[in-house]
Amino acid sequence: MNRLIVDEKEKIYTYGKDGSKSKLLVYEKTEKKEIMLYSYCPRNDHIHQSMVNVIRKFEQKYLNIKIKFVAHDNLQQINTELLTGKGADIICGIYPAMEYITKGVFLDLNRMIDADSKFNKEDYNEAVIEGSRYGEALYIMPITYVKQFYAGNKNLLEDNNIKTDIEWTWRDLYEIMNKVKSKGIYATSTCPQEENLLLMVKDALDYYIDWENKQARFNSKEFRETLELFKVIKSGNFEHLEAEPYPRNGRKFELLLNNTLFYPDFHSG
C-alpha cells in the first residue's frame, strides 16, 4: 500500500515506479502566475478569437501561467493606465506605440531574447522582426503580418506597353494614367481617400516625423509636393468608381478586365 506524507510546506512525498526502479516522488503546490493581456483591435473580432485560441494552447503548455485576456474598446483608458504605471502586462493590436516607447513604457525585448537559449530568430521572418526595431532596441514583437500589393491586368498592361519590372514611383503612375486616359482606362478600383494618402506617405513616415524630438515635417517641400501629387492623381482617372474592391453584391469583373490596370488590397500572410 502506498503512503503519502505531507510536510508543513504542503509538499507531498510518495514512492513510485520509474521503470523497474522505485523512487521518491515529490509534488509541490505552485501558484499560477497571472498575466494581463489587453487586445485593442476595433471591429476585428476574428483577431480577438485568434488570440483566445493561442492563449489556450499556451496555457496547456505552461500550466503554471494564467493569461487574463481582455478585448479592450477604450484606447484612452489603456493610455491612462500604461502611462501611470498600471494596466496590462502585454498589449496587442492598434495603439500609439511611439508614444509608449519614447515615454519608457515598453520593455526592450532584446533582454528576454538574449536570456532565452531556446529562442531562435531563424525560426521566424527576421525581416519582419528587424523592421520593428527602434534604434537598437526591440520594443514590439509582431505576431502576424500581411503583404499588400496590386494585382496587374496582364492584357491591358501589355496592350499599352506598360512595363512592370521597374521600381515605380507615384509620379510614374501619374504619367501612366495620362498615357491611357484617352482610352477610358483607369489605374485601379475605388479606394478610401485616407488609404491612398497613407500608401503615398507611409514609407517616408520616419522622415516626416522626428519621433525623438517630437517634431513633424509636414510643412516640408517634399510633403507639400506629395499632397499636390495626391490631389492631381485623385482628380484624374486613378479610380474606376464603379469597380469596388469589396462590393456587397459581387465584384464586377468585366470592369476590371476591360478598363482597370490594377486591383489593390490583395493580402497574404
**Whole-number tally of structural domains:** 3
**Principal-axis shape:** elongated
**What's the total helix number?**
11
Q: What is the structural class? A: alpha/beta
According to CATH, the fold-level topology of the largest domain is D-Maltodextrin-Binding Protein, domain 2
Strand content bin: 15-25%
Task: Report the CATH superfamily of the largest domain.
Answer: Periplasmic binding protein-like II
- What is the CA–CA distance across the termini? 57 Å
The helix content is 25-40%
Low-confidence stretches: none
Q: What is the CATH class designation of the largest domain?
A: Alpha Beta
> How do the strands line up in the largest sheet?
7-12-8-11
What pattern of helices and strands is seen along the backbone? Answer: EEEEHEHEHHHEHHEHHEEHEHE
**Which value, in Å, is the CA radius of gyration?**
27 Å
Protein name: Extracellular solute-binding protein
Keywords: Cell membrane, Lipoprotein, Membrane, Palmitate, Signal
List the helices and strands and how they pair.
Elements: E1 5-6, E2 12-18, E3 21-27, E4 33-40, H1 45-61, E5 65-71, H2 75-83, E6 90-93, H3 97-102, H4 110-115, H5 126-130, E7 147-152, H6 154-159, H7 170-180, E8 186-189, H8 193-201, H9 205-208, E9 209-210, E10 215-216, H10 221-235, E11 239-240, H11 253-259, E12 260-268
Q: Could you characterize the architecture of this molecule?
A:
The protein is α/β, with parallel strands linked by helices. The protein folds into 3 domains: 1-30, no CATH class; 33-106, D-Maltodextrin-Binding Protein, domain 2 (3-Layer(aba) Sandwich); 147-268, D-Maltodextrin-Binding Protein, domain 2 (3-Layer(aba) Sandwich). It is 35% helix and 22% strand. The protein has 11 helices and 12 strands. The protein has helices at 45-61, 75-83, 97-102, 110-115, 126-130, 154-159, 170-180, 193-201, 205-208, 221-235, 253-259, and strands at residues 5-6, 12-18, 21-27, 33-40, 65-71, 90-93, 147-152, 186-189, 209-210, 215-216, 239-240, 260-268. Helix 1 (45-61) links the parallel strand 4 (33-40) and strand 5 (65-71). Helix 8 (193-201) runs antiparallel to helix 10.
